[in-house]
Amino acid sequence: NNNMSKNLNKYNLTFLCSNNCSSGLNTIFYYITKIIKKNSNFIKNIKLNKLFDKILSKTCPNSNLSYNTRFINSINIITNNTEAGILKIKEKYLEFIVNIIETNEYNDDINNDKFLGQIFDCFDENINIIIVDSKMYDYNSYNKNLLEELVKFNTHYIFLLGYMKIIPSSIINIYKNRIFNIHPSLLPKYKNMMDL
Q1: pLDDT of residue 2
Q2: Which of 47, 140, 157, 159 sits in a 20 to 30 Å window from 177, CA-based?
Q3: Are the C-beta atoms of 182 and 24 separated by less than 8 Å?
Q4: Is the pLDDT confidence value at 115 over 70?
């Protein structure tokens, strides 16, 4: 419903990750692309929009569903692991885009340096990456610091993506019905599997 979409509030999404999250990168790439595509530098460029549509088709969590992402304001990624591969998500995202550019018909149409520079800027403006190192705290202190970060970035919804810790009741009570676990395959049939 277009009228409902116009009146949607804007929400901040926070992904909690522990490890490399390689099986969940497509999910994050999808939402990042949706945010970046709305940037004024890209919105009127037909060639770039065609490229973004290609990226979205490759990263869409479920191609049979339609995702209304106009409600997303920003994305936060919090990891409790200082060695987590998710910390290099910007580099991985740009590498993903470059591979699509080089293997499709966009290579001669896009000024890569300018375009990738704009992607970098958009990424930094809209995507926050935070470390709350669980090795530095006891259980209660860690979760207290985690909650402070969630509040600091005005989190509305939490997505667990390879998050290897139990969420305490103190956080569950505040974000009741707003915490979602993303598993990369159908459960219980494909436990411990990668993306379908």
Answers
A1: 41
A2: 140
A3: yes
A4: yes
pLDDT in tens, 9-35: 788 999 998 866 665 677 888 888 888
d(CA 11, CA 180): 15
At a CB cut-off of 8 Å and minimum separation 6, what does 172 contact? 179
CA distances from 106 to 48, 52, 61, 96 (A): 9, 11, 24, 14
Which residues are CB-neighbours of 116 under 8 A, at least 6 positions away? 94, 97, 98
User: Of 125 and 172, which is predicted with more confidence?
Assistant: 172
CA 153, 156, 159 angle in degrees (round to 5)?
A: 95
Residue 89, both tokens: 């998500």
Residue 114 phi/psi, 5° resolution?
-65, -45
The model carries a pTM of 0.78
Q: Identify whether 188 is preceded by a cis peptide bond (ω within 30 of 0).
A: yes
pLDDT band (50, 70, 90) for residue 55: confident
Which has the closest alpha carbon to 72: 26, 116, 127, 22? 127
Separation between Cα atoms, residue 166 and residue 179, nearest integer Å: 12
Cα–Cα distance, 88 to 68 (Å, whole number): 27
